Amino acid sequence: MLFSFDNVTYGYIGEPVIENVTFELHEKERVGFLGGNGEGKTTLLRLLMGELLPDSGNILKKNGLCIGYLEQTGGFESSATVYAAMEEVFEEDKHLLSRLEEVQREMSEQNADLRILSAKAESLQKRIAARDSYHFRVKIDTVLGGMGFRDFYNRPIPTMSGGEKTKLKLCRLLLEEPELLVLDEPTNHLDVKTLFWLEEYLTSFKGALLVVSHDRYFLDRLTSRTLELEHGRLTSYKGSYSRYKVLKAERVKELEREYERQQEEIAKLKD
Questions:
Q1: Strand, helix or coil at 213?
Q2: pLDDT tens digit string along 244-267?
Q3: Distance between CA atoms of 227 and 224, rounded to whole angstroms?
Q4: Model pLDDT for residues 8-27, shown as the tens digit of each residue
Q5: Which CATH superfamily is domain 76-177 in?
Q6: Cα–Cα distance between 18 and 231 in angstroms, integer?
Q7: What does the DSSP 8-state code read for residue 39?
Q8: What angle do CA 185, 189, 192 make, to 5 degrees?
Q9: What pTM does this model have?
Q10: How far, in Å, CA of 164 to CA of 78, rounded?
Q11: What are the C-alpha distances in Å from 210 to residues 137, 185, 194?
Q12: Does the 3-66+178-263 domain belong in CATH 3.40.50.80?
């Protein structure tokens, strides 16, 4: 389990926005998150990120859980160029590769202690292989190219528009590969070509996904469970968006039948 909400309630000025919300999200799970405007989706995400504290209930997270959060209006801010900002993600990889080159140079020198240096080189190579450090530039090229920044590597980020900065924030999150990726309307600033690329890229993403989106095709392609926040209450449906629509219609009909039975019972009691 990555995190859980246990009877969480949160409100503003005494009015609950979400009430007694209970759900869990597990490793590598892909979940769509739906709800009308003003229903409290952003509030729930801010509670998950620790930006807000619940009025009641508990939020539990896996120790050391790394969450990447793309806010709907949150852009990437940096004074660096596009490529340099993405390269920052791989500082540890660059350090390991540089250190390996240094050790290999030392091994070629006279009077070098090859036993000690060989052990150091072997240890570095294992860490490099585990992190796939040799391919970090390929990863940057893949993500920036797929998101439409191939011709903007040297462009300073402060000169970019708000929509471009939001796309860059998504690029950065994809490269960081968090254990849980939370995306709030990630398709807002994407053209069709970039949208198809992102869908394809996320199908092979190794972590868990929690996606807020009004794009039913995007959700159908990526999610296997759907959460709906309505009137402060959260309901979970197994399946993608299309399956959710079927199950939601069945649930509404059942609630209508239950209401009619209650009205009949009330009428009998009155008689």
A1: coil
A2: 999 988 888 887 888 888 888 888
A3: 10
A4: 999 988 789 999 999 999 99
A5: P-loop containing nucleotide triphosphate hydrolases (3.40.50.300)
A6: 8
A7: S
A8: 100
A9: 0.88
A10: 13
A11: 27, 11, 20
A12: no
